[in-house]
Every structure is written in C-alpha cells, then in structure tokens.
Amino acid sequence: MVEASPVKFYLAKYFFMALALIQWIVGGIIVINYEFNAKSFFVSLIFFTIGLISLFIFSFITDRIRRVAVGKNKIVILEGHRNVRFEWPEVKSLKIVPYLNLYKLKVKGKKGSIYFFPSQNIDPAFGLLSKDTSKMGEIVEKRKKEFGIK
Predict the structure, then answer these.
(1) pLDDT tens, residue by residue, 50-87
(2) Contact at 8 Å (CB) between 129 and 118?
(3) For site-directed labelling of 147, which of 3, 27, 55, 95 has its Cα 20 to 30 A away?
(4) Which residue from 2, 150, 10, 14 is spatially nearest to 76, judged by alpha carbons?
(5) pTM of the predicted model as reported, rounded to 2 decimal places
(6) Range of the domain at 89
(7) How far apart are CA 116 and CA 4, in angstroms?
(8) Transmembrane ranges (predicted)?
(9) Same domain assignment for residues 137 and 97
C-alpha cells in the first residue's frame, strides 16, 4: 500500500482554519491597540471578513480531502481508527486535478468526490497535463487500464 505524506494532508486540510485564526487575531489586535476611529474599524473589519471567508473555505474542503492508501487490489480511505476499503472495480473515475497536485476519486454508489494527495509531487508534463511518476502513479495507471476507469 502506498500512502501520501501525512504532512501534506494536514497542511492542506487545516491551512484555511489557521489563516482564519491569524486574521481574527490581527483584527482583534487592531481593535484593542489602536484608537477607535473609522479607519481602524474598517481595517479590522477587513481582517475579520477575510477570516470568515477562510473559515467558510475550510468548512467546505475539510470533508472532501482524505488520506488514502492505494494498493494493487484496493483503495483504503484512512479515517482515524476506521478505514473504508474499496475494490478497484468500485471506482467510477480517478483523475489528476491540474495545478493542485491532487487526485479526484469518484466511487460507484457514493455521492460526491474524494480528493487525496499522491505519494510524491506530480511532474507537470506539457502545460495543463500532469503525470504522476511515483509508485502510486504506476499502480493507479495500471489499475485504470485494467478496469477501464476514466
């Protein structure tokens, strides 16, 4: 089984929450330390708004990004103590998302998509096209051809 780095996973998953907290702290410092006038209120309001937008983005992507291990016979979604296993024939589609260095997985009978990171960085190959040259990429390409996955 080949799995991506947990550092990439946690960094991508919690980046927007950390950004929101930093924005709120900066906005709070501006409100507390500076004289209350229209300019300082407007600047702190901008920081609070950016923090709110970042928190919204975090809540949107937090349930879509998963830790996934890819093997020759199955795909395992790692969720703490609980692991969800899928056989390769259950996969509807598996694509690389350009520029984001992510895989997009759709499973038959499941609503929505699951996004996960490859085991190594994906090499850009002719502009928009990307090719995963890692061990995970070899397994994915071989199984996609074998089972006719999009």
Answers:
(1) 999 999 999 999 989 999 988 888 899 888 788 889 89
(2) no
(3) 3
(4) 2
(5) 0.79
(6) 67-147
(7) 8
(8) 12-34, 40-62
(9) yes
